[in-house]
Design a protein that fits this description.
Strand content: 25-35%
Radius of gyration: 21 Å
Strand order of the largest sheet: 9-10-11-12-13-17-16-15-14
Number of strands: 24
Distance between the termini: 61 Å
Order of helices and strands: HEEEEEEEEEEEEEHEEEEEEEEEEEH
Oligomer: single chain
Helix content: 10-25%
Amino acid sequence: MTKHENTLTNRRNFLSRSVKTGAALTLGGTFLYLNQCSQSEKPPRLKLNLVKDTKGLCDLPAGFKYTIISQHGEVMSDGHTVPDYHDGMGCFAGPKGEIILIRNHEVPLFFPFGNTKSPEPSYAYDPKASGGTTTIWLNDKLQVIKHYLSLTGTIRNCAGGKTPWGTWISCEETDSGFGGGWTMGKRHGYNFEVDPLKPLQKAKPLKAMGRFRHEAVAIDAKSGIAYQTQDDNNGCFYRFIPNELQQFEKGGTLQALKIVGENIWHTSRTSLEIGKKHPCKWVTIDEPDPEENTVHIQAQEKGAAIFVRVEGIVAHADGIYFACTSGGAQGIGQFFKYTPNPDDLNNGGSIELVYEATAKGVLEKPDNITINQWGDLIICEDNSLDTQCLLGLTPAGKIYYIAANTQSEWCGACFSADGKILFANIHKEPGMTLAIQGPWESLRVAV
């Protein structure tokens, strides 16, 4: 055994013990919390200044309205039933002005009810798995034109991201200790590409993008580089440099971000100043498709920084924004911005903290994010409060509320091409897709 192999083995054994201990503590805390919740109400949040929905589903600001587009249990155009657990989503323009939505379904391997196999095994990546995506075509009146299964045979399709060439990348959020199915005849933990203009195709994993607990993807239109998040307490922030632009299936290089010149290895255990840029570089992952769940271990052995539960991500003209759901000193959320080096896209760049949640009940546990025409981050919450919110966060750090529900977390926020309609999912019980419309600029004026 070489010195490197011995170091790697010792690191894996240490992390394995840490993970097991941490899992026990986390699960113990979770069960205790659930037991407490069964005896008392969930913690309330601050006043939201939203108009109560008479139907009890979705509270909105004055002058706004919502339309239910689709929900779990409905029969689609292809005869299949809409799956539950609605999650990440992308919005595309159709050839004749239609609105097309591709929606993830975070269906795990082990499920307490329903079908746990693919409804279309000949098109499935793994016939034993029932996760995937559905595609919805809408007319200008938001009426469903057609609705069908567009990816199948995958597990825990959490979030993903749009590509500049008009497709959707759907991410599996699973690893060897979460969600089941890391190895079940077929290896899981990959990304998959879906074309909004095509019917159901045979699912093919994008293995070079890495095998880990994926959350979301954002692609820099200038460079073609894909930035990826990992929903893990010991997660990293990754980028994938493809061998050929727009051809991720042809391989490439997976790397993780390292902060250099400063002793910052854990971004929640270090006090970071808002807006301070920290120089960084990228370390290469030697084995992006490992047998065991070791991509983050490989990255951290080379000095990659730890980000706590990196989830939502979006590419903007001035950089790549991403959310750490449980990041920060209070453990209730952070937002970072990575700015590439325009003179050397193969290395360099800077990372900065742009917002950290500190007051409970204002913004807690940010998950999926998108961005509007004014550069505001639009945030889906996934918290343990009595209310889940869709929020806006301005570049000046001001918060405004867009929608609230008491049913389940918000997911998949995305705008129509003209910026007038915000589509978003209520995750479960039942999962449903809503279209929200109203005077958007008025929300910003109020703050």
